[in-house]
Amino acid sequence: MLDLNFIRKNPEEVRKAIELKLVDLSLDDLLTADNEARAIEQQVLKLREERNANAKRTGKASPEERVNLIERGKVIGEELKELEARQREADAKVQEYLWLVPNIPAPDAPIGTSEDDNVEVKRWGEPRQFDFKPLDHVQILEKHNWAEFERIAQVAGS
C-alpha cells in the first residue's frame, strides 16, 4: 500500500499508475476524502484542546463560573462524540480508497493488457519434472490423515 503522504506529494505519478494498471479508482475522490478527514481531525483536535483548557479553568473558577464551565464541558463532550464518529467514518472511507491504489510500476516494466504481455526477466534452474502426478496440500493432508476436514468444518463452520 502506498503511503498517503507519497500520494499527496506525487498525484500525477499515482494517477499514471492507476491508468496503467487499469484500476477503477478516481484519485480526485481519494484526495477529496483525505482533505475532509484531515479537516475533521483538526476540528477534533481543537475541541480536545478547548476541553482540556476548560477542565483546567474549572478547578480555579468561582462557584458561579464553575457551573458554566461544567456545562460548557458537557457541550464540548457531545460535540466531540459526534465529530469523532464522523472522523472514524472519514478515515474508513480514505482507507477503502487506499486499498485500491496500485503500486507504482518500475519505469522499465513492460506495459501490456494481459498476462501474455509479461516478459520473463530471469529464470533459475529448470522446472522439476515428476514421473507422477503431484498432489496439492489438501490432497497430501487427506492422504496421510493429517487433517480431519469434516470435523474441522463441524467445529469451525464452513
What are the main properties of this structure?
single chain; 158 residues; mainly alpha; 6 helices; 0% strand; elongated
Sequence-ordered SSE layout with sheet pairings:
Layout (H helix, E strand, L loop, with lengths): L3 H6 L1 H10 L6 H34 L2 H38 L36 H7 L5 H8 L2
Helix pairs in contact: 3-4
Q: Could you describe the 3D structure shown?
A:
Helices cover 65% and strands 0% of the residues. The protein has 158 residues and is mainly α. Helix 3 (27-60) packs antiparallel against helix 4 (63-100). It is built from 6 helices and no strands.
Brief sketch in words of this structure:
The protein is mainly α. Helix content is 65%, strand content 0%.
Mean pLDDT metric: 92
Number of strands: 0
Q: Portion of residues in helices?
A: 55-70%
Q: What does the overall shape look like?
A: elongated
Q: What structural class do helix, strand and pairing data support?
A: mainly alpha
- Residue runs with pLDDT of under 50 for 5 or more positions: none
What's the helix count? 6
Strand content: under 5%
Q: For the report, how would you describe the main beta sheet? A: none
Helix-strand pattern:
HHHHHH
What is the CA-based Rg, rounded?
28 Å
First CA to last CA: what distance? 30 Å
